Amino acid sequence: MEEDKVSLAGYFKDFGRAVKNGNIWTRLSLIIMGLGHLANGQYIKGCIVTAVEVLFAWVIALIGGTYWPKLSTLGTVQRKESFDPVTMTKKVNNFDNSLLILLFSIVGIVICFFFALYYIYNLKQIYKVQQAKEAGGHVNTFREDCREMVNGKFYVTLLGLPTMGVVLINVIPIVFMTCIGFTNYDIDHQPPTYLFTWVGLKNFQTLFTSSVSDSFGYVFIRILIWTIIWAVVATFSTFFGGIFLAKFINDKRTKLPAMWRTFFVITIAIPQFVTLLLVGKMFGNNGIVNGICSQIGLTDFLENIGLVSKGLGYIPFLSKPGWAHVMIILINIWVGVPYQMLSATGLLMNIPTDQLEAAKIDGASERQIFWKITMPYIMFVMGPSLVTSIIANINNFNVIYLLTTDYTTTNMRFATSHGKEVDLLITWLFNLTNNYSNFKMASVIGIITFVICVALTLLSFSRLVRGDREEEFQ
Question: Which PROSITE patterns would you find in this protein's record (predicted)?
């Protein structure tokens, strides 16, 4: 952290030194960015840099003149149609589009941020060339600069395109989604027909409070608790299940280990969504499993002991709270354990045998060897994977959505907020946007989910994946 602060301070300090000690051409580059390059004989580079500055000025003039002035209100002129009896056509007024105003304003701000970094970098480069020229050193030509970008600075070239992709695909959508959470963008305020505007923290207040007419607070707490329970149980059940299964298959006393391993690997070969859809139908109210349970009398037995409502006629594996929660976890174990089994198999085969033999000679039991040598080694190596698995399960859309497509809540407070008892935050968010166009509340839920994932990641990596434990396993 201290090194980052020093590096950042040095970045701006070098810029200040260039402004203070630069010659007239370096200082004029503060206005026309390519002048310093032209004065130093780098004509092609100077023209390109000046063209970039002109392009930036044109884009910012377009965005700044059209969208930035309306950012504070997100538009005031609503779309209206009128019929012109002379031309017998419909005419539309010059209306504002709140969505485009917000989007292009964010794009403009991001462009300004990166251009500011490039602006500082460019002036520092001009000052370096000035110093080299004054000292009688060599000044690179444009061809030499290009050659350096594929040799000495090839890492910059390689990172350039991915960085642009991250900005376009991740940064801008995340900032845009976050901003939507502070507006009233919903089914009643959908552009281009209608406008939406800023509402501050009203949506967050709605999410964390509950009333007779608004039950978002009630539903949010329950879905959040289930999301955390699901993430923890789903992660650790498949994690330890895969380890124990790999341990069993690799045990010297196990017969035909290749056959057992093949049986579980076959489940990986089948696409997950196909497995989930098939299993969901099998455990449906009219599925084959319910038919078998009814024939053998299990359904009647469960009705008699009170686990199934009287007269229901089937076991609500995936259609009632409690039952559905348990079944989702069990089905996820079946789907997820083979993946972890393969990962754990590779780790178990790489544990140094001399450590295991030394432990046996010292009188350690199989259980002690497993918990004192095997598990610490696995946790050290698979720690990052475990953290990402927890985050992935918080956002595990497929398992929940595909298994609960026929689930209908009977709780009116859930129904009012368009949620279900088996929803995760991510599936609730999807339902709000896809089926009810409640983008404002979906955005708030997305922000909360993002904060939870970041907090868990930072906490887990700081505690579980520490760099000071490597010598312990050497």
Answer: ABC_TM1
